[in-house]
Design a protein that fits this description.
mainly beta; six-stranded mixed beta sheet; 5% helix; binds CU-O-CU linkage; binds copper (II) ion
Length: 461
């Protein structure tokens, strides 16, 4: 399989430049330092890029623990801006959730904050800044948080693959600093022009024929929905957003990975020795190599049979018949046809709403987190929420603190997730048991959307 290398920017010399080597090293110790760093993000022929990263890299250090273990990190803030850290997908105590302005005050420059929590579920998670996240995540403040199953899986090795798209000015090699630009915010969010895996352009890894890999894919981009295909790899989806599927699902089609979504794959390398297998990315009718696997040797094994399911994480069973039913209408944005919305309880024209920096509304209100919560629930209550995307764009909704089931069209409990990708004009029902007390955000993970009206919260008493 010979996929084109991604054409970045304009200079062929740059496209042909040597690929930077994999240099990411996890920093030991319990400090997680948010700071400014100059890194060689672009190919060597370009200058260095100033990023905001954890421990001077992006992605930041991988945090890896056993299921049930305690995670302790002191966030130190050496940024020129206040920050906080959210542990995405972890069923965490509310005070540790890291949402500036809701579960904690943002940590000012020069100050620190102690995070201390238990990771109850095995799976692929991540951490990222949660103050002005449309800026701070775009600047590089994120990393992988991996919670290992009690028993190792029957695979030869695993790879954590974090995808991002950066918006970079090729002249200066610097990140475009127009965060929250109104065109991005009112359309599909901030999309980048330079796509990386683990901070590396055109990542290539070695592989052996018939090798079995566990791939942990994480989409850390602000808004891009990655459309992925496997080439030269036979694969099964074994977990979504950290949570194991009841049965592994053979990958036969495009995998869509919205912002913040994760998918765990088990793949067998079926490309021949001398060939290259790929995770391919489809972008406007073109196919690029997102990650290349260069098959250098035959290995020893033969191809294995289908993988067994991952062990399930403990989770309460939702009773749909006794669940409180809620509705969340997503409205607004460009071409959304919304003419008015409320702000602070008063009806405003869309122009007035836009003048106050809001482009989107939930159930007719554009207040975002300044408004009342979507629901106040009692602890242990069963809930189902119909989310109707009445906008002209897809959105990826994320609930903090608890995983939910996606409900299938036939009304069955589908996979457990912490995000759900909803196409424009589509509807999705989710259901969960509200067993984690606190104030939990429910927002679009297209981060400029979240900052401009697509945020609400659920209060569990
Ligand atoms: Cu991944 Cu509210 O965040
Ligand atoms: Cu959105």
């Amino acid at each position: 399989m010979n996929l084109s290398r991604r054409g970045f920017l304009v200079s062929t010399a740059a496209v042909l430049a040597a690929r930077p080597a994999l240099t990411q090293v996890a920093t030991p110790g319990l400090i997680l330092n948010a700071g400014v760093a100059d890194v060689q993000l672009l190919p060597e022929t370009y200058g260095k890029t100033t990023i905001w990263g954890f421990d001077a890299t992006s992605p930041g250090p991988e945090i890896r623990v056993r299921q049930g273990a305690r995670v302790q990190r002191t966030l130190t803030n050496n940024l020129p801006q206040a920050t906080s850290t959210h542990w995405h997908g972890i069923r965490i105590s509310n005070a540790m959730d890291g949402v500036a302005g809701l579960t904690q005050t943002a940590v000012p420059p020069g100050a620190s904050f102690e995070y201390d929590f238990v990771a109850p579920d095995a799976g692929t998670y991540w951490y990222h800044a949660h103050n002005r996240s449309f800026e701070q995540v775009a600047r590089g403040l994120y990393g992988a948080l991996i919670v290992e199953e009690p028993e190792p899986l029957d695979v030869d090795r695993e790879e954590v693959l974090i995808f991002d798209d950066w918006r970079i000015d090729p002249e200066t090699a610097q990140i475009d600093s127009e965060f929250g630009a109104s065109h991005d915010t009112s359309h599909g969010g901030r999309l980048g022009n330079y796509i990386t895996t683990n901070g590396i352009y055109n990542l290539a890894l070695d592989a052996r024929r018939n090798e079995r890999l566990r791939l942990r894919l994480i989409n850390a981009s602000n808004a891009r929905i990655f459309a992925l295909r496997l080439e030269g790899l036979d694969g099964w989806t074994v977990a979504l957003d950290g949570m194991p599927l009841v049965a592994p699902q053979k990958v036969t089609d495009t995998i869509f990975l919205g912002s913040a979504q994760r998918v765990d794959l088990i793949v067998d390398v079926v490309a021949d020795v001398g060939e290259t297998a790929h995770i391919a990315q489809l972008d406007r009718d073109e196919t690029f190599s997102q990650v290349a696997f260069e098959v250098r040797s035959g290995g020893t094994g033969t191809k294995r049979g289908a993988p067994v399911p991952l062990p399930p994480n403990p989770h309460p069973v939702v009773d749909l018949n006794n669940a409180r039913a809620l509705t969340l209408r997503m409205e607004g944005g460009a071409m959304g046809g919304l003419s008015s919305a409320t702000l602070g309880g008063e009806s405003k024209t869309m122009r007035e709403v836009v003048d106050s920096g809001r482009y989107w509304a939930f159930n007719g209100a554009a207040d975002g987190l300044d408004g009342p919560p979507l629901a106040k629930l009692t602890r242990g209550e069963h809930v189902r929420i119909t989310i109707a995307n009445e906008t002209a764009f897809p959105h990826v909704m994320h609930l903090h603190g608890m995983h939910f089931h996606e409900i299938s069209e036939t009304g069955r409990l589908g996979p457990l997730r912490d995000t759900t990708l909803i196409d424009r004009g589509a509807e999705r029902e989710i259901a969960f048991v509200a067993n984690n007390p606190g104030q939990w955000l429910l927002h679009c993970h297209m981060l400029s959307h979240a900052a401009s009206g697509m945020s609400t919260r659920i209060v569990v008493a």
